[in-house]
Amino acid sequence: MQFRSITRIVGLLLALFSVTMLIPALVALWYRDGAGLPFVITFILLLTGGGTLWIPNRHHRHELKARDGFLIVVLFWVVIGSAGALPFILSPSPVMSITDAFFESFSALTTTGATVIVGLDALPKAILLYRQLLQWFGGMGIIVLAVAILPVLGIGGMQLYRAEIPGPVKDSKMTPRIAETAKTLWYLYLGLTILCAFAFWLAGMSGFDAIAHSFSTIAIGGFSTYDASLGHFNSATINLIAAIFLLISACNYALHFSALSHGGLVRTYWRDPEFRAFIIVQFLLWLICFVVLLQHNTFDSLRETFDQALFQSVSISTTAGFTTTGFSEWPLFLPMLLLFSSFIGGCAGSTGGGMKVIRILLLSLQGVRELKRLVHPKAVYTIKLGNRALPQRVVDSVWGFFSAYALVFVVCMLLLIMSGLDELTAFSAVVATLNNLGPGLGAVAANFSEINASAKWVLIIAMLFGRLEIFTLLVLFTPTFWRN
What we know:
The chain has helices spanning 3-19, 22-31, 37-54, 66-83, 86-90, 98-109, 125-140, 142-149, 157-164, 178-202, 207-218, 236-249, 253-262, 265-270, 273-295, 302-317, 334-344, 357-375, 392-419, 423-434, 453-467, 471-474, 479-482, and strands at residues 384-385, 388-389. The N and C termini lie close together (7 Å). A two-stranded antiparallel sheet has the order 1-2. Helix content is 64%, strand content 1%. Strand 1 and strand 2 (388-389) form a beta hairpin. The longest helix has 28 residues, at 392-419. The chain is built from 23 helices and 2 strands. It is mainly alpha-helical.
């Protein structure tokens, strides 16, 4: 294990993260809301801390192994999540405990979107933008950004990229060089953010709100600058724009790159099995919500029913967690259906949470193969995605992920019940955090401010497990990882 090289890289990344504190500080200066000092102090502390880690180890540039990459990614998310809590602790508005500050920071960076803050409408602009900015940086992944712009990472870039990028297939690169792949991902990410902000602005949002909500939309985070979330605007046009960009961001960014590079948009997207499965799931969810809401006359008009069913089904299933209405009060099984849809989440290589569409698709194909083997025990069946046969290693990894996911889910839920939460709240809170969704049911339907501190720390760990896709964090607890 290259501990000094790991310390050097974490120090560099911490120094890089410190620069982001200057953005809300400038916003505070622009709006003169008096909220800039906590960000300046945090900038100085993080830059000093990053330099302290980097300077003594700046000459240690050994090649990183796979396990070095895992350790760096986990350390960095823990360190940055903790550092991101400093402005919340130092800020006079809102007044937050250390537990709440850590919860809000980790929720933002992991793009979970679960909040403990009540009264967003009255907060300083700097704090509001800071929450959105944390989600934006966490969406594509700060590690991927670092690989793109810090050539000093050198050979270890691929190990960091593989540990950070979501999905079961980690070795695919869009370009020959990993740094170019990381840059391409961020160019797409930035371009979509600009388009989304412009669309929100044309639809009637202020410039500040358009930028802030574009950050959380493209990151599929779900934070808003208002307690009522996007329901504050009461606009079907804004809801439609958000739904469209959520769907785009929930698709594999490598697929976007391929479509833009080679043309033939319809053909490129539709021949991808994961994309087809994703669109079919989204359509079925909307159709079920629309029909049930229509039958129960939940809304006053056909247009409003269409709007609410589309927006809420897309928002919850892609794990964004924006709300325009109290979906937890919808009739029959719809709240639970939408909550379970977040287990699927977005596509691999997207900013969405959940287990990812491709894993659910592979589990389904594996199930079909086992049924065939019952009829023809001696036959050899291969699992294919499109025309490509997948190695058994990939299929095995999906089953391993599913098993580990179920184990983490059960343990977290039991710990929440031990802390005093009721069963519905505990179940939905773990769903909301492990899938990086945000809103839940029961006591966490609106926000997480009322649950106890012990439960919040359990949920912070669940957020990290969800964002790092279980194995990246879980592997650190195995004895094999630490053996030479």
